[in-house]
Design a protein that fits this description.
- The protein starts with 11 loop residues before the first helix and ends with a helix.
- The protein is an alpha/beta fold.
- The chain is built from 12 helices and 10 strands.
- The radius of gyration is 26 Å and the shape is elongated.
- The strands form 2 sheets. The chain has an 8-stranded mixed beta sheet with strand order 4-3-5-10-6-9-7-8. Strands 1-2 form a two-stranded antiparallel sheet.
Length: 321
Amino acid sequence: MRAGIHRPPASGVQAIAASKTINRRWLPLNALRAFDAVGQRMSFTAGAQDLDVSQSAVSRHVISLEDVLGQKLFDRSGQRLVLTAAGATLLPEVRRAFDLLEQTMAAVSQDPLNGRPIRIHIPPSLLQQVVMPMIRDFHRAYPDVRIDVSSSPVTGMPSHETDMAIVFDRPNIDDRITDLLWLVRVAPVCSPALAQANAGKSLEAFLSDNDLLHVTLEGEERGLLWSTFAQTIGIALDINRGHAFDTASLAAHYAMQSGGVALADVAMFAPEIASGQLVVPYDAAIDDGFGYYLKLRADDLADPTVSLFRSWLIAQFAARQ
């Protein structure tokens, strides 16, 4: 620079573009906020409204972020806005980072002595039948740790962001740390009255003569679990009969109170079987390929509270089995 000429410092976006290096000193936060708003609504107009700024300002921020990355984040060629591959990779990470900042700042502002709660998603039946007492015992041991539990009958990861999730799924490999907690082993269960009324029948005849109670799995056919059972056992079965429920707990409780045969995890419903509310009339338990897995991102283990709760859950499930 020649003597006597003063140039103003580059903006964060300009500095990154010039150096081709992205670091937190120059993170383009306004551009990332604009990208997050547009990506959530898939609309520049709606994103601008959410941020209470002009559409042109949001557009400029997104373009500046694309310049920094050297990648297009949105395909604007069609009638509808579409994320590019780069945009689809970046958006969930940006959303997750802003969610974490928002929740942590809210927690600190409300109670500076406590950190933010641990967010965990747990499938409803496992939560009701198994995990509730574990959370109670953890709270007794670590009363200062807060846990926010969400639950929905999804197969695999929930749609919303969490610190960790127990998922009901087949074995799979992804970018998350995965711990097997529970292998599912299912058998037909029913009320004692229904078992007594059908005493002496073969398993095939028993299932054919009574309503099948299904558990619906997201993205799977209605009768998948009964179909898998019939194929494994080697019997013919009309899987289109009967009622379907969102959760295994609902199906099992219907079997106890209203009749029908549910396909239930015999370990999960061991208390109901031990008490005589449910019976397993045939020795026909199978591993159906599903299990419950604890999943979390590797970088979340840097949080000592998350790491503590993960280790606790793994130990509790290991002790139970």
